[in-house]
Design brief:
This protein is an all-alpha fold. Helices cover 65% and strands 0% of the residues. It has helices at residues 2-7, 10-18, 23-44, 47-64, 74-93, 103-106, 132-143, 147-158, 163-170, 174-194.
Length: 202
Amino acid sequence: MEIQLRDASDSDLVGRFKEGAPEAMDEIVRRYADRLFNFGLKMCRQPEDAEDITQETFLSAFRYLDGFRGETKLRNWLFKIAARACMKKRRKRKCEPDRELSLDALMPSEDGPAAYDIPDWSDDPSDRLIRAELKERIEKAIAALPPKYRMVFNLRDIEGFSTEEAADIMGISTQLVKTRLHRARLFLRQAIAEDGWEEGAQ
């Protein structure tokens, strides 16, 4: 049974769960726990918060999976629950203002640092090959993004969701996703350039 479940598609797992096979949920947890935890960690920056978000996501999934109609991918549905859990936790803490990123402030000046192109992790699953120093600087810059920009960047450029999928997960328009992603990328390029990283540096 375990081998069959591991080979099953997400939709098959949902179907088996609805037919009364609770072990299908175990496989869903195995399949998505690490990704949801990492998403929560990138958003909330605290392991205990990421653990809470992961647990809350799977508890909600267990409770409502019977009513899941498959109108979206299971992965998208889980991340939508996780995104809401992240936003709820942030509202409770009220310690991280959701400030706006000014487009003018992000545009490089003539004598400012040259922008460094952020690697598109969604197209390169082997991000382990990114030099450790650059990766650390990128992660530091991502953590400094305002939450709503950080969420768009994580969903699009790290998790690999499409613009339409990210818009559905966050409950915003596709145009707003594009705007926030553009500003997030500019912010990250500027932050890395100001940190002294030069393209091609060893």
